[in-house]
Amino acid sequence: MTKFTLSSLAKTSLATVTLFIFVSAQAVAEDGKIADSALPIEDKEFLPAFPGDDTINFARAYGNRNGHAHGTFGRFPANFVTPPHTHSHSYRAVVLSGEMTNPFKGEENPPVLKPGAFWSVAAGSIHTTACVSDTPCEFFMYSDQGFDFKPSE
Fold first, then answer.
1. Is residue 21, in this structure, part of any structural domain at all?
2. Amino acid 82: pLDDT
3. Whose CA, among 39, 41, 121, 137, lies 20 to 30 Å from 6?
4. Whole-number Å distance between alpha carbons of 146 and 134
5. How far apart are CA 75 and CA 73, in angstroms?
6. How far apart are CA 70 and CA 63, in angstroms?
7. Tens of pLDDT along 62-105?
8. Contacts of 31 (CB under 8 A, 6+ apart)
9. Terminal Cα distance for the chain, rounded
10. How far apart are CA 31 and CA 28, in angstroms?
11. In total, how many domains does the chain have?
């Protein structure tokens, strides 16, 4: 299994810097209003997204993806594809590094999404998400609601 380190995050792109500014401005205070906040890259703490499996890792930027509005960084290993699945709520995402695809309903030739590219997923839409590059992928996802993963097969 690919292991991730802070040194692998040392190469930042314009998309990463732009997204960092966006995330910093989107931190949420306890009363639900946007609060002043910053998340230096060395403070991003990636943890396994699913208990007992370190394949997919998430790092909190703001909010709480367990049922609330959130901004979350994600990492996939190189050449990794999720099984077909859905989510209870819509989300949006931006590719930060690597190359990704997000085929919907068995789409055979989805566009390859490079750093700076965007995708969105509607609630209940069957799709897969993949890191199609020979290097790990990082992305940033955000939603006004929580995040879950429901296998569709």
1. yes
2. 92
3. 121
4. 30
5. 7
6. 4
7. 877 787 778 889 999 999 999 998 888 888 999 999 999 999 88
8. none
9. 24
10. 8
11. 1
One-letter amino acid for residue 150 of the chain: K
Q: Which domain holds residue 66?
A: 6-151
Domain assignment present for 14: yes
Is the separation of the CB atoms in 99 and 112 below 8 Å? yes
Give the containing element (helix H, strand E) for 143: strand 137-143
Which CATH number characterizes residue 109's domain?
A: 2.60.120.10
Which residue reads 């930042």 in tokens?
12
Identify whether the C-beta of residue 120 lies closer than 8 Å to the C-beta of residue 89.
no
- pLDDT, one tens digit per residue, over 119-153 is 999 989 999 999 999 999 999 999 887 677 888 87
Q: CA–CA separation, 48 vs 56, rounded Å?
A: 6
Q: Give the distance between the most distant pair of CA atoms in the chain.
A: 44
Q: Is 44 exposed, middle or buried (0-12, 13-18, 19+ CB in 10 A)?
A: middle
Q: What is the pLDDT of residues 21-40, one digit of tens each?
A: 344 334 555 556 777 888 88
**Helix or strand (DSSP H, E) at 24:** helix 14-25
Looking at the domain assignment, is residue 87 inside a domain?
A: yes
Q: Which residues pair with 91 in a beta bridge?
A: 121
Give the CA distances from residue 117 to residues 21, 53, 99, 144, in Å, rounded to whole numbers and listed in that order. Answer: 17, 27, 9, 20
What confidence score (pLDDT) does residue 143 get?
84
